[in-house]
């Protein structure tokens, strides 16, 4: 039986980690993810989990220790945000290159400079091509559910990849919501026992991790890694199907909201999707056919399926809570544009940058976007492709 | 108690780093690895910082390592092995593993004194049951002989070349062994492959003791030192006999010099055979030689005084 609770996003994630009960965790404090590890270490101190903690001196060492622990042969998790993820960057590629199923919760936060501790997606977007699977979460329930599914996905024998579960800093991590926890036993059954693959601790079969591979084979190695990525969608859907059986909650590669017959649509990640859905309802009430697509599996990005889901629309706005500097568009926009590129008939695309450094995303912002889209759908004319919204000047 | 080492016993043991690796002829590092691993009475898992030893011993699809081995990056051999050791402890506590296993990290001086110092300090402070071995050849040899904080004063390197204005490195080297002993770990020691019995006794003792241990081992590099390939053991002996590289240990805070030369040789005996110090023998650079000798005399005196504090 599910247990209904009122909990913050961080509390829900910490609870998921407790139910998963990993063998080792290495972590370093950083706002707003700190709270997850504070809660988790209290589970450790009070004997609620069997986990051995490594309280490292930096995030770089946190990921390095996770890599060592995972290669040794066991279940490993950590959590971080912002600068912490940036400091881990070098090790992210090594974790995925070594094919280690480490699970990390990223509580999304802006990057310095200027220093800002609040929620935006710059951190995880900077790590989107690191070979990690990325699952994004709208609310505490989704964060909890994604963490549990992440272990099943990452540890799947067909892929063996690290997984990052993202949720919005403060907006979700520190707000209390109603959500449902699964029973401990249900979680344990769902994730199953950890399956070892070439563990370092197998002294009878010594293995070498992290060789030098020169131009003669490096490219074959990278191609093989890319082929593994192509299997991820199937594994994610399979895990979602089994998860639905125990939770009643349905997950896919992405969520669509009133999209099937829509003429205009919003693509948006995480918590701002909720606000957008409310505004879409208002537009629907006014007879405007608006819809929404919220990516869940952001890496590897399901280009074909998302392109297929959006191709019938007249106009789409991609909202990015991170910018890509250098005259470029927001990262989600670039991916959506890529997913639609193969189609002859496709929607007109615009890009709005919103909510940086924790700036509120309000219903009026969604209204502004939807009104503009309705106009574009009517006239076929676009004034500005990329624009900052909710900003001075 | 650690079993005493005997040649008879050692000759029967398997060498755990195979021949056929691609380290340079005359390099000290593989000799050091061989000695350290031979000294252990237990099965060992190793981590390796990026560097000469790592790139030359595991080029896919070959590995010279007959033990489980992991390389992840340059600055984190200590953090990486701390993860392996923690997983071992977790699984042992859960009854999933019962074997006694020891853990060792190998890093060069660049990966240990410089970029890896934070990771090493953290792992030592956390008290992991591990031995960290630094093979100190006094520069970033893998990337082509660049200056590190372990480079001796006066040495010619590719980033602080001896020129008409600057006579090579002008700063004194960092004393890492002292820094590690300052972590109040159970065991920190300096060793040299020339004094192989001393080195292996120290390694065996380190593997035997629970908790974090550190060994700093001088590792001649003929490419960087500009010396003959067959001189590496002779040079590491001269480093000890000139007290450039004193052999000592700090066991539970007690300092003990493990080899005292009958007559301390002048440092020039160590410097002369090495091309990296050639420029110091020009009259205008005599002051550097004097300064180097002064550094060594001061440190050797200090070490002897420190040892005498613990003499019973």
Overview of this structure, please?
- The complex is a heterodimer of chains A (393) and B (312).
- Chain A has 393 residues and is α/β, with parallel strands linked by helices.
- Helix content of chain A is 41%, strand content 19%.
- Chain A has helices at residues 9-20, 34-45, 59-73, 82-97, 122-126, 140-154, 184-191, 218-229, 232-247, 272-285, 303-310, 331-340, 363-379, and strands at 3-8, 24-27, 52-55, 76-80, 103-108, 133-136, 163-168, 176-181, 208-209, 254-257, 264-267, 290-295, 297-299, 315-320, 348-353, 386-388.
- In chain A, the strands form three sheets. In chain A, strands 3-2-4-5-7-6-13 form a seven-stranded mixed sheet, with helices on both faces.
- In chain A, helix 6 (140-154) links the parallel strand 6 and strand 7.
- The longest helix of chain A is centred in the C-terminal third of the chain and has 17 residues, at 363-379.
- Chain B is of the alpha/beta class.
- At the A-B interface, strand 3, helix 3, helix 4 and strand 9 of A face strand 1, strand 2, helix 4 and helix 6 of B.
- Strand 9 of chain A pairs parallel with strand 2 (69-71) of chain B.
